[in-house]
Amino acid sequence: MDFTNLLILAYFVLLAVTLRKRWGIIQGPWLFFFRAFFPNWKFYHGINPAPRLYVRGQTESGTWTDWFLIYPRLPRKLTHWVHNPAVNLALTHQNLVDHLANDINDLPAEGDVRHLITYQLVSRLAQQAMQGDRWGDQAMIAIEHPSNLTAFQYEVRMELPEGASSQTMLQSPVMPLWN
Q: Whole-angstrom Cα distance, residue 147 to residue 48?
C-alpha cells in the first residue's frame, strides 16, 4: 500500500472514530473536507427552493450588466456515459453553491458569512465565470457579456423549479475583477 492510500485510509478511520463519539451533524474545520466526498442529497426531500448562483459585472463606466445564471445544464452526449469531466466539474460547482446555502442556514446570528470557506470558494467561482471560464467546451455564462468589466457581484437565490419564484439569500459586496 503506497503512502497516499495509507493517508486516505487514516483520514476515513479518523472520521469514523469521530462520528462514533459524536452522532449528529459533522462540524469543525477539519471535518469540512469530508463533504467533498459526497454530494448534497437534500434534493430528494421534495420540491423545495434550490440555491442558484447569479452574477453580474460592472463596466469601466460604472454601468451594470444583467444578472447571469450560473447553472450546469450542459448538453448531453453519448460519450458522457464513459467520460464527462466538464459535466462533473459543473455539477461540483453547483454542489458548492448548495453547501454555501446550507452553511448560511447553519450560521449563528453573530456569524460572518465572509469567514465561511464555501463563501470564499463561491466568490472565486463567480469571478471565474465573469472572466469567461468554461466547463470543457461550454462557457459558464451562456450569454456573451462585455469584456471591459472591472468589478462583479453575485447573489445566491433560492428558486423553485421553472423559476416560479425567487428569494435572494445572499448578495455579495461589489468585488474587483482581477485579470
A: 36
- Does the pLDDT of residue 150 top 80, yes or no? yes
CB burial readout 130-154, b (16+ within 10 A) else e: bbeeebeeeebbeeebeeebebbbb
Q: Which of 168, 165, 163 is nearest to 153 (CA)?
A: 168
Task: Report d(CA 22, CA 167) in Å as an integer.
Answer: 35
Mean pLDDT of the chain: 81
Q: Which amino acid is at 57?
A: G
Asked whether the predicted pLDDT for residue 125 surpasses 90, the reply is yes
- Minimum mean pLDDT range among 42-46, 119-123, 146-150: 42-46
Q: What's the rounded Cα separation, in Å, for the pair 51 and 102? A: 9
Domain ranges of the chain: 1-38, 40-176
Q: How far is CA 7 from CA 1, 11, 27, 29, in A?
A: 10, 6, 21, 18
* Neighbouring C-beta atoms of residue 1, cutoff 10 Å: 7
Neighbours of 68 (CB within 10 A): 20
